[in-house]
Structure formats: C-alpha cells, structure tokens
Amino acid sequence: PALCGSLASVAANAGSMEVLGGATATWSSNEGTSTGNPIGMNTGLTFKGSGELDNGTTFTLTVTGADQMGYTSGSIAMVTPSMGSITIGHSVGGAGVDRYDDMMPTAWEETNGTSLATGLQTVAGVGTTQMIEWTLPSDMLPDGMSAHLAVTPRAGAGLTNDKASSGDTGVSGGGYDIAISHNALMDGLNVFAAMSTIEQAIAAGTGASGDRTQYVMGATYAIGSVTVGYQESRDNLQASAVGATNSYYENSAFGISFNVSDNLSLSYGNHKSANALNSGASVELEAESLQLAYTMGGMSVKIAESSVDNASYTSGTSKDRDGTTIALSLAF
Fold it and tell me: Is 0.90 surpassed by the pTM of this model?
C-alpha cells in the first residue's frame, strides 16, 4: 500500500498519461481461403503513463488492447540513471529472443506479417510470457553494443493480475534469454544473436526429452538507400518421442529493402522453415513477400504481394497460396 501510494503521488505530480493508436484500413485477398468481407480496420489502442522518481529513475506503464480492444499485453518499465532499465512484462513480445525473431529489412511488415496465413514458426523464448528483462546500461558495454537478460519463473503460466498467482501447468518451468547486438563494428553493419533455455517436465512416453532451447543469429547491412539482411534460427522443442510430434524448427531468412525516395520504399523478403518430426519426417515451408510503401504527409499506402508453399508445414498444392494485402494508414 505504501509503495502504491508513493507511485500514485509521483504520477499525479510529475507524470502523464497518453493514448496511442493508428487509423489503418486494409483490403485482403487470399487465394484458397474464404475471404468474406475483405475490409479490415485497426481498432487497437495503447495507454501509456509515465513519471519520474526523486532519484532520476523514470517509469512507464504500457497497456495495449488489440483489435476490438481485447487485452493483449502490458508492461512496467523503469529506466535508472546507472543500472540500465528493468521491464516487467505481460506477454509484451519484442523481449529476449523474440526481439530478433525476424530482423530482416522491410518496407512494411515481416514476411509472415501480412493477411496471408502462413503458419510460420519462428522463435520467441520467454519474451512472450510473464517475465522480467534487464537491459544493461550502455556504459557497462563496448560502444555500439546492447545486451538484454530476460527471465521467467514459469514459462507456461497464464497472465495474472496483481496479488494473484497463475498456478502450475506442470509442463514448462523457468527459463531465461540472453540477447546481444552490435552496430559499431563497421559503418552500416548490425549483428545480433540470442539464445533461450526453458525447463520442461520430463515424463516417459509423453513428456519432453530435455529443456527447450532456441537460438537466433544474423546481420543487416545498410549502404546508401539499400539495406540487406540474413539470419538463421532454431527452436529445439525437445517434445515427446511420439513420431508425429515436432522435434525442432530450423529457419533461414533474408531480405532487401530499397528507399527509392523519401516517400517511396520497396522490399523483398524470404523466410524458409523446416519442421522435423521425431519420426524423421520433415516438411519445408517457404514464405515470401514483395512490398511497397508510399507516404504522402500524414498518409501512407502499403501493398504486400505474398505467397507461401506448404503452409502450416503441410505439403500439397492446396497449401500453396498467394495473397494481396493493401493498407491505408493515417497519422494522428
């Protein structure tokens, strides 16, 4: 109660609250699916409150409601003067290994981020669970390097409110991620890598065969108006020994973007992912997307022509699909 009262006092005297969002409408047309009404609209909002403590530490509360205002994620981030930043996250994404799940340059979205349902599995680590992440202060690291450590006591737990506990699923235990990047090795070059380990319950015949581990590494290089990138990742599920169960996913991705002018940008991205079953069988999924983005003042028009082979790691011509996504966004 004393701490809550203290933070409320700070927020009232020196804090602020704002509502963030975007005005975006889309048109989607995907081959092989029942489109129905292709018109979509972004109806999500983010509420952001911030303040400052007496010692110079700043804090930010962020609560995001996805489309049609269903709760998506929340976080409390505290930036200290000398010890870096600490974030307590509720399924926020973009933390730990998840911050590098797809770093390829793009004019608009990730290869699998358009309206075409690919079923592509990348890596997430503990970044999408209830976790705490420490971002090391820059003065503790070489110039151009960033480092993050994310931990969770129970990766398989659900989201809970304050003064509540999630219970125990008995499947996924504690875990941690380490993520680093460096952008000062050479002009225009950014290299990144991350790893994750999550404990798993081991039971003969039905449980996991070991801890779940995930890895990602890659680089992007910008020269003039062109940026290129390449990365690889792997998710060792260590699932049960049943033949139809996935043993691991192995991914490779590359992308290139080109800023034609201050207003027009183009990009091409390709992401391949193979799933391996414990039986030894494997299916390779391939998704690619050609994108264009054009900005006119506060308005932007974005187009993505995408395709996927073996969607959701299922072979057959019915799983080879093309799709078009068009978006109109207005800034406010």
Answer: no
